[in-house]
Write a structure and sequence with these properties.
Helix content is 55%, strand content 23%. It has 208 residues and is α+β, with helices and mostly antiparallel strands.
Length: 208
């Protein structure tokens, strides 16, 4: 039976647990072991469910069509370090950029310095080294909530996907796994724009 657990800091570090069967059927929602309710199915989860906890409101719903994830709010605000928390989203996107860029730069440097013919034959070299470095720098830009950096990062990933297909055709390879992973990265990065907008709006309210 699938299970997801979240530590809700806004409710005093209480543990929110969801268990279900199949495609979001008979979803049991509990907080610190105390059952809050049972949601019938996927449609009911998308509609959302609100519970009152000692004067605070906790809402739980399933959001997103392609990659649906749980949206958890406390008193109308995204719970920290949950899927739709904008701060958490920006942090994840920047980490993806750091890992992708860092690995690309390291492997490319190895290919050139150690003169590894196989790595060179699949496209690693000085160009990919600098691309990796740029990707890492863009990750820092995203962390500073730059839409420009995010847009360029997505553009680089699209170009990388195209290059992957070209190499696959030339080498008769199968890029399926890499393509799926990078498509997931792309869809997740696309959420970054709304996350930056949400954080900017929140900052404007605080400043005002």
């Amino acid at each position: 039976m699938p299970t997801k657990k979240y530590t809700i800091k806004e409710l005093g570090e209480k543990e929110l647990t969801l268990t279900w069967r199949g495609k979001w059927k008979d979803v049991n929602i509990s907080l610190d072991g105390q059952e809050l309710g049972v949601v019938a199915d996927h449609k009911a989860m998308q509609e959302g469910n609100v519970y009152t906890i000692n004067g605070d409101t906790l809402s739980v719903c399933l959001r997103g069509k392609v990659l649906p994830e749980l949206e958890i709010k406390v008193n109308g605000k995204q719970a920290q370090k949950t899927a739709w928390d904008p701060v958490f989203q920006i942090d994840i996107i920047s980490k993806i950029a750091f890992i992708m860029g860092g690995l690309t730069a390291v492997v490319s440097l190895m290919a050139e310095i150690a003169e590894i013919s196989f790595l060179r034959s699949v496209g690693f070299g000085w160009i990919t080294f600098f691309t990796g470095v740029i990707t890492v720098l863009l990750g820092f830009g995203v962390k500073q909530r730059s839409k420009i950096a995010l847009g360029i990062l997505i553009g680089l990933l699209v170009v990388d996907l195209a290059a992957m297909f070209i190499v696959a055709v030339q080498t008769n390879g199968n890029p399926a796994v890499g393509v799926v992973v990078k498509l997931i990265f792309l869809m997740y990065m696309g959420r970054g724009f709304s996350a930056i907008n949400e954080l900017s709006s929140t900052q404007e309210v605080l400043d005002g």
